[in-house]
């Protein structure tokens, strides 16, 4: 039989993930996944992680041809600590474990956002199409912080969208000035809105196509939740009904994925949105490429410096210095470029030891899994 992923598609499942999953499974496992069994006997099912709590993982999936259901997944030790191995938005294959479902593998993600939190790498979200970088048209406005978010998105190959909120708080002239500054960023999707006056919301609705996944980042109070509520038309709610019980249905957590109705004509279409209230300080790591893309103009000049290891200080033939002197590049952009790269380099050097250790652990658990498969 052909698998019916129709409900999953409305929450972001695509052929891309099917291909990844097929490549990760053995023939027998694939056959079992496509089995004709009743949902109650189905050995495997695909779920999307919607929340990661200390003691449990919430996910949403489709059993048989039933509607979407929400359930808790069992998390085996090889996926712990979850902050390293699982992210909200990840697709997982789970196997039946009596009346529960246990995570078996993570479908190779299309994109993953990560940061350093209390000196530890932490996955923020996975499989996003857009990162909505939200700032407000008042004292929160800070280009340097936006560049940091931009690097985060570009590093993860997620399309960044800059949203300037609370446009009602400033004059036309001030708004023009804010927008002029934003246009200097290496991001061509920029929108000014006011949820108070309802302006600009229609443009944002064009992003809300069925199956799309969006995360919102920005300082506390810039209006992320207000924006989401305005777009959803209602309070955010978790799609699907819970299979087992009603505990923790709306527990607040830093990492939670909600579904709002899509704005396109497809009935029952959903858009996955992740609000990130916990992300006040964003510490990037492993983000060299994202930083270079964020400052593409400076980076491309740096490629032309006479010395490949040019520090852009007093070296002869430095194209960056030259551009700084003739005003082609902004000194504050240059400072931020240098600062972010230095931070990234510093963390890389400091963490080299522990990262290598983790990589070793991961390849070890992979080896054990392969051995188990062979024994089977
Ligand atoms: N003037 C004006 N105020 C707004 C607008 N949007 C939101 N606000 C106000 O800004 C405040 C913060 O809004 P929230 O939506 O809670 O901000 P947030 O980004 O979700 O904040 P955290 O949840 O702390 O991350 C509230 O008092 C809102 O009423 C707007 O378009 N114009
Ligand atoms: Zn140089």
From TrEMBL:
<dbReference type="InterPro" id="IPR030378">
    <property type="entry name" value="G_CP_dom"/>
</dbReference>
<keyword id="KW-0699">rRNA-binding</keyword>
<keyword id="KW-0694">RNA-binding</keyword>
<dbReference type="GO" id="GO:0005525">
    <property type="term" value="F:GTP binding"/>
</dbReference>
<feature type="binding site">
    <location>
        <position position="310"/>
    </location>
    <ligand>
        <name>Zn(2+)</name>
    </ligand>
</feature>
<keyword id="KW-0963">Cytoplasm</keyword>
<comment type="subunit">
    <text>Monomer. Associates with 30S ribosomal subunit, binds 16S rRNA.</text>
</comment>
<keyword id="KW-0479">Metal-binding</keyword>
<keyword id="KW-0342">GTP-binding</keyword>
<dbReference type="GO" id="GO:0042274">
    <property type="term" value="P:ribosomal small subunit biogenesis"/>
</dbReference>
<feature type="domain" description="CP-type G">
    <location>
        <begin position="110"/>
        <end position="282"/>
    </location>
</feature>
<feature type="binding site">
    <location>
        <position position="318"/>
    </location>
    <ligand>
        <name>Zn(2+)</name>
    </ligand>
</feature>
<keyword id="KW-0547">Nucleotide-binding</keyword>
<comment type="similarity">
    <text>Belongs to the TRAFAC class YlqF/YawG GTPase family. RsgA subfamily.</text>
</comment>
<dbReference type="InterPro" id="IPR027417">
    <property type="entry name" value="P-loop_NTPase"/>
</dbReference>
<dbReference type="GO" id="GO:0046872">
    <property type="term" value="F:metal ion binding"/>
</dbReference>
<keyword id="KW-0862">Zinc</keyword>
<keyword id="KW-0690">Ribosome biogenesis</keyword>
<dbReference type="GO" id="GO:0005737">
    <property type="term" value="C:cytoplasm"/>
</dbReference>
<protein>
    <recommendedName>
        <fullName>Small ribosomal subunit biogenesis GTPase RsgA</fullName>
        <ecNumber>3.6.1.-</ecNumber>
    </recommendedName>
</protein>
<feature type="domain" description="EngC GTPase">
    <location>
        <begin position="126"/>
        <end position="280"/>
    </location>
</feature>
<dbReference type="GO" id="GO:0019843">
    <property type="term" value="F:rRNA binding"/>
</dbReference>
<comment type="function">
    <text>One of several proteins that assist in the late maturation steps of the functional core of the 30S ribosomal subunit. Helps release RbfA from mature subunits. May play a role in the assembly of ribosomal proteins into the subunit. Circularly permuted GTPase that catalyzes slow GTP hydrolysis, GTPase activity is stimulated by the 30S ribosomal subunit.</text>
</comment>
<dbReference type="InterPro" id="IPR010914">
    <property type="entry name" value="RsgA_GTPase_dom"/>
</dbReference>
<dbReference type="InterPro" id="IPR004881">
    <property type="entry name" value="Ribosome_biogen_GTPase_RsgA"/>
</dbReference>
<feature type="binding site">
    <location>
        <position position="305"/>
    </location>
    <ligand>
        <name>Zn(2+)</name>
    </ligand>
</feature>
<keyword id="KW-0378">Hydrolase</keyword>
<feature type="binding site">
    <location>
        <begin position="165"/>
        <end position="168"/>
    </location>
    <ligand>
        <name>GTP</name>
    </ligand>
</feature>
<dbReference type="Pfam" id="PF03193">
    <property type="entry name" value="RsgA_GTPase"/>
</dbReference>
<dbReference type="GO" id="GO:0003924">
    <property type="term" value="F:GTPase activity"/>
</dbReference>
<feature type="binding site">
    <location>
        <begin position="218"/>
        <end position="226"/>
    </location>
    <ligand>
        <name>GTP</name>
    </ligand>
</feature>
<feature type="binding site">
    <location>
        <position position="312"/>
    </location>
    <ligand>
        <name>Zn(2+)</name>
    </ligand>
</feature>
